[in-house]
Amino acid sequence: MKISDLTLIIPILNEQDELPKLFKRLNIYHSDFRIIFCDAGSKDNSLSLLTNFCQNNPNTTLLTEKMEKPSILKTILLAQDKILTEYTLIHPVDISIDQLDLLITSNFDYMVFFKKYESNKLFFKIQALFLNWIDLNIKHNFVWTNALTLRTALLKELKLFKIGFLEDVVISDHLKKNYQIKINRSKVSISTRRYLKTGIFIQFIRNFKIIIKFRFGNKDIDELKRTYHK
């Protein structure tokens, strides 16, 4: 595939502090692909920042819809009928992909990236090693921050999974069951802001508990949410 065959979909919700950093990263990326920002009804200054950026960048589009219960999947599906390229990359607001135009060169059904954290703390290095080499490389499990890149036609299948919480885990299970995964070992850089808000170990333990419960058959989303928000 050519880089011009790719559209970046960036889900947004109240990201006014993160958007200036994102814009700097996007300006480093190759300019031959389209970018579609999907806003789920931001109440801060995000829409103003996005509108200004799109006015100065012709390959960008802004879509917005107020959602009662927003999720990343619901948000990115706003762009489904606007994507004209063969491939789509789901690009969370707080990731960065180095030399993106050099990394996507072959055809595939769906692809995910290894990841690294911006922090150099030992805990994050160990966590990245586990997620990359065990959870992704062996088990083929991924989440949104692995920068899911897939044939745009497959987005139609994702409409079946508008569940919000843990939707990326469910989508991961569906895709690995039905399609051949491509793993790109070039690393996506990820912000640690979500961990730092609640504490590194507390958030990691919560996430681990949730995944274990889910994998062993607990599909009660409300109960899993309570574990996450304790």
Percentage beta strand: 15-25%
Average pLDDT level: 87
**Overall radius of gyration:** 17 Å
Estimated helix fraction? 25-40%
Q: What is the makeup of the main sheet? A: 8 strands, mixed
The dominant shape is globular
> If you consult CATH, what is the topology of the largest domain?
Spore Coat Polysaccharide Biosynthesis Protein SpsA, Chain A
Task: Give the domain tally.
Answer: 2
CATH class of the largest domain: Alpha Beta
Reported CATH architecture of the largest domain = Alpha-Beta Complex
Order of helices and strands: EHEHEHEEHEHEHHEHHH
Terminus-to-terminus distance: 44 Å
CATH superfamily of the largest domain: Spore Coat Polysaccharide Biosynthesis Protein SpsA, Chain A
Architecture overview:
The protein is an alpha/beta fold and 230 residues long. It folds into two domains: 3-197, Alpha-Beta Complex (Spore Coat Polysaccharide Biosynthesis Protein SpsA, Chain A), CATH 3.90.550; 199-230. It is 39% helix and 20% strand. It has ten helices and eight strands. The protein has helices at 19-28, 46-55, 72-76, 100-103, 122-136, 155-158, 167-178, 193-198, 200-215, 221-228, and strands spanning 6-12, 34-39, 60-64, 87-90, 95-97, 110-117, 149-151, 181-190. Strand 1 (6-12), helix 1 (19-28) and strand 2 form a beta-alpha-beta unit. The protein is globular, with a radius of gyration of 17 Å. The protein starts with 5 loop residues before the first strand and ends with a helix.
